[in-house]
Amino acid sequence: MRQHEIANDTIDLETRLTQDHHQSLKLWLRMLSTTVMIENEIRNRLRAEFDITLPRFDLMAQLERHPEGLRMGELSKRMMVTGGNITGITDQLEQEGLVMRVTDKQDRRAYSVKLTPAGRKAFKTMASVHESWVAELFSGLDAEQKSQMIGLLSSVKSDLSANFSASKHNEHE
Amino acid sequence: MRQHEIANDTIDLETRLTQDHHQSLKLWLRMLSTTVMIENEIRNRLRAEFDITLPRFDLMAQLERHPEGLRMGELSKRMMVTGGNITGITDQLEQEGLVMRVTDKQDRRAYSVKLTPAGRKAFKTMASVHESWVAELFSGLDAEQKSQMIGLLSSVKSDLSANFSASKHNEHE
DNA sequence: TATTGTTATACTCTATAACTATA
DNA sequence: TATAGTTATAGAGTATAACAATA
Predict the structure, then answer these.
(1) A80 CB neighbour count, 10 Å cutoff
(2) What's the mean pLDDT when you consider all of chain A?
(3) Which of A30, A62, A81 to mutate to test the interface with B (most CBs of B within 10 A)?
(4) Torsion angle (degrees, nearest 10) of CA B78, B82, B83, B84
(5) What does the pLDDT look like over B91-132, one tens digit per residue?
(6) Is the C-beta of residue A168 closer than 7 Å to nucleic acid chain D?
(7) Of A84, A85, A114, A158, which residue is 20 to 30 A from A13 by alpha carbon distance?
(8) Nearest residue on chain B to A32, judged by CA atoms?
(9) What is the pLDDT of residues A82-95, one digit of tens each?
(10) Interatomic CA–C1' length for residue B54 and nucleotide C11, angstroms
(11) Does B8 lie at the interface with A, CB-CB under 8 angstroms?
(12) Under a CB-based contact definition with an 8 Å cutoff, are residues B159 and A37 in contact?
């Protein structure tokens, strides 16, 4: 132990940099594979139980949080996806009667997308089941560990938003 | 503080369950959006700098770790993707001269996929730059926080592998 | 002119299932 | 029969760019 600390004090900067790089990479690979596993599990369950895809579910989740409705451009930013895709997903959901486009009185180029009553009802059911799945998938952590992780992720994310917002459509949450 | 603890002791089980659900959901949403942001950033940089996609890069990364070569089925498991896709990605990389299929002497149905010398060289360059990007993107955490997070993710992941390996092609790492 | 949203297109990744050739 | 890998197909999601309507 002490040996290690002493070594740590005397190694040169380049070595420490390499170690940091390796640690970051390890963290990233673990984070990525864990996320993919959970995402796949949830995606499969959503399809099997509710015949819905993840982006469609996400769009509805955004609308649930904004009962006043969101414009297409808002949805695009929040879902980190370009505009054309939002049109497509919204089209599908509208066909199924789950969301509706409400024309904006002030700006006739724009729409507000809202959940229909049927959409709100359907989403409530799905969201509740979805939430219990997530709880199940994270049952490997206790409450303390979860809040720790939430804090760590927030640090990463705020650092990202501050420095790399240019890359795509961020401004998330 | 004390008030909070007392309250925590006396609230009923259902309430605590709901709180846990919300916390898990919050954790998952934060983890997902953070991962997506980093993934997008890396994907864009890989395309811009090296004209390579993430799956192609990942396949090469797998081979780099296994100089003796990997069979198509192995790659399929490790990349959490079905077999047909591995054929496609391998075809592309083979065309570009980055990997090669080596027929197995013992089992003439099977191949070992390996990096070519050119592939190994190209990957070394990319991997080193990639690693520094990752370090940059995680610079919001210090070494201590990173190792904390690695530990937390390991708990989640091992719990997942133990309970949900059926969902797709896991057995990762 | 700039902005909101749509359309058209093309590309990548993905899963499924039928297929071939070995084992 | 079972297994390793391929092929064919279809579907989802994505970005880009040209476009229409409105501001």
Answers:
(1) 17
(2) 87
(3) A30
(4) -140
(5) 999 999 999 999 999 999 999 999 999 999 999 999 999 999
(6) yes
(7) A158
(8) B35
(9) 999 999 999 999 99
(10) 14
(11) no
(12) no
Contacts (Cβ under 8 Å, ≥6 apart) of A70: A62, A63, A78, A112, A113
Nucleotide nearest to A110 (CA to C1'): C4
Q: What average pLDDT does this structure show over A110-119? A: 95
Q: Is the CB of A81 under 7 A from strand D?
A: yes
With contacts defined as CB-CB under 8 Å, which chain B residues touch A39? 32
B149 touches chain A (CB under 8 A): yes
Quote the Cα angle for B53-B54-B58, to 5°: 120
Question: Residue type for B104, please?
Answer: D
Residue bearing tokens 């297409």: A72
